[in-house]
Structure formats: C-alpha cells, structure tokens
Amino acid sequence: MKLLPIFAFLVIFLLLVSGCISITPKRNFLHDSEAKITIRELANPIADIGSFDTLVSSVINENPFGCTAYTTDGQRHAPVEKVKEIYTARLVYEDADANVVGTSENDFNTVSGFNSGIAIIMANTALANAYGGICIHDPDADTYYAALRCHDANGELYYLALRRDSVTLVAYSDDAIRARFEAWADKIPSLAQAGGGKSRNPTSLKTNFSLPQIS
Fold first, then answer.
1. Nearest residue to 26 (alpha-carbon basis) of 209, 154, 173
2. In 10 A of CB 58, how many CB atoms?
3. Mapping DSSP to helix (H, G, I), strand (E, B) and coil, where does residue 75 land?
4. Coil, helix or strand for 202?
5. Shortest CA distance to 161 belongs to which of 59, 61, 74, 31?
6. Phi, psi of 115 (to 5 degrees)
7. How far apart are the C-alpha atoms of 98 and 111, rounded to whole Å?
8. Domain ranges in the chain?
9. Cβ neighbours for 195, distance < 8 A, ≥ 6 positions apart
10. What is the dihedral of CA 174, 175, 178, 182, to 10 degrees?
11. b (16+ CB within 10 A) / e for 62-94
C-alpha cells in the first residue's frame, strides 16, 4: 500500500512533463479554444508619446467597453488595468559631416521615465564625445507599447495591446466584445484603419495564451 502514493506521484509527474496537465495559474493563461485575436493595423503611427499616453489613459479612465470591477484571490481589481508598458527611445550620434557614428535604443517602463531619460542622455556630453558626434533624438523611430487587462460584464478577461502602429484585441470569445472594440476605434481619428477597412478577422487561439510579447 505504501507504493500507491509513489505511483500517483509518478503519474502526475509524467502528465506534467508531457503537457497533458498544467499548473499554470489560470489568471495568466487562457485554455479556451474559442478565444480570438483581432488586429487593427493603423493607417499612420500614433504621432507622439503624449498622444499615445492620452489614448491609453482614456481607455482606463473612460472605460469605453463597459468593463466591470471584479475580485480574484481576495484582491479587488478595476474594470481596466494597465499590466505592462514599455517605451523605446532611439537616438543617433552624428559627426560634423552629418554621418551617423553611433546609435542608441533605450527602454523605459513609464512615460515620465521615457521623457526624462531622453533629456538626460542628450545632455550627456561625455557619452556623445565617446561616440564622436552629437546626440540627436529620432522620434519617428520610437516605439510604444501598453497592455491593458479588461474585465467584460459577461465575466471574460481579455487584453487590449496598444502599439504605435496597431491595436490588438486578445483572448476574447464573445463577438460583442469585438463589436464594442470596433465601434470605439472607429470614433478615434488616430486609430483609422490601414486601407480604410476594418480590423483583421478574428483568429482562434489554438494554444495556451500568455500576454503578447513586446516587439
């Protein structure tokens, strides 16, 4: 009889290794074959960091999708929460003949850090001298990313991933969520769809989903 617990442990271990079962927290991964992803590629990149931050804040504060507050593991959550953000500033160094002698990409996890970080780097004459040129910020090459976790009134948790050139609705199953997303985006000039059409058709997620990677 003492062999039974050992045998049970070995069975569970083999199932974990084979991927047949998972102990990943449910709140971080979605195991739903009906989950979908919709991508809206923008006609033009969002103009600047201020415009991007205003857009993200409006989703959180104005709650255009009618999301609801909820409690999980004893913790109270707002209807929409920012769960990840990263802002990348690109700087170039040019010599007296306007030749590029160096480049720098710097990641920041807040908008304020992004703005102050650029100012600090551009004022760093020792660094510029090391490159052999002057530091110039290339704002058109900057990238922005923010991921929002949204709790629908029907109980679904889904994500809205905003980038400078796209907005992606991730891990939803109810098409009414997509309809609200489209209606919201259609009213915002900066989110005009590339090609004048609608977002790409929903795609089913056939594997476990985790928050989209930054790219």
1. 209
2. 13
3. strand
4. coil
5. 59
6. -65, -45
7. 30
8. 32-207
9. 43
10. -150
11. eebbebbeeeeeeeebbbbebebbebbbbbbbb
What the block records as the tokens of 35 is: 């989950």
| Cα–Cα distance for residue pair 39/181, rounded to 1 Å | 11
Cα atoms in the Cβ-side hemisphere of radius 13 Å centred on 136: 16
Lookup: tokens for 90: 């690109």
pLDDT in tens, 153-207: 999 999 999 999 999 999 999 999 999 999 999 999 999 887 655 566 555 544 3
User: To 5 degrees, how large is the angle CA 38–CA 153–CA 58?
Assistant: 65
Pairing of the two strands 80-94 and 36-41: unpaired
Structure tokens at 58: 């409006």
User: Strands 143-151 and 203-204, how do they pair?
Assistant: unpaired
Nearest to 60 by CA among 156, 162, 132: 162
**How many Å apart are CA 95 and CA 7, to the nearest integer?**
70
Give, in order, the Cα–Cα distances in Å from 71 to each of 3, 68, 127, 201: 42, 10, 49, 32
Q: How far apart are CA 78 and CA 81, in angstroms?
A: 6
What pTM, to 2 d.p., does this model score? 0.77
- Identity at 116, one-letter amino acid code: S
Rounded distance, CA 106 to CA 84, Å? 17
Type of residue found at 209: F
pLDDT, tens digit, for every residue of 60-97?
999 999 999 999 999 999 999 999 999 999 999 999 99
